[in-house]
Amino acid sequence: VQLQASGGGLVQTGGSLGLSCVASGFTLDNYAIGWFRQAPGKEREGVSCISASDGRAYYAESVKGRFVVFRDNAKNTVYLQMTSLKPDDTAVYSCNTYFGGTSYWGQGTQVTVSS
Description:
Blueprint: E1 2-6, E2 9-12, E3 17-24, E4 33-38, E5 45-50, E6 57-59, E7 67-72, E8 77-82, E9 91-99, E10 102-105, E11 109-114
């Protein structure tokens, strides 16, 4: 079971980036997938989550209205589209799922927003 996040990069304030979380070894649409981020010197925080059953999306207040999470089951991938990026969004972004008593983390991808 693996998750691989990608799509990070350097962007200016107000810019956009799209992150991908590709799953292998399991069928991603059967499980909720979460996006988390961790900035230097800060605790990891939850950014967004998409449920398995109905695809309902949840967002942290800090990103609501700017980020959109969605899934493409045919590609076994969950995406995080980020717009109106701010310097405070700078962090390593990772995706996560939990099943069978185990939490699975993908290797993160760096997002840097310059002011």
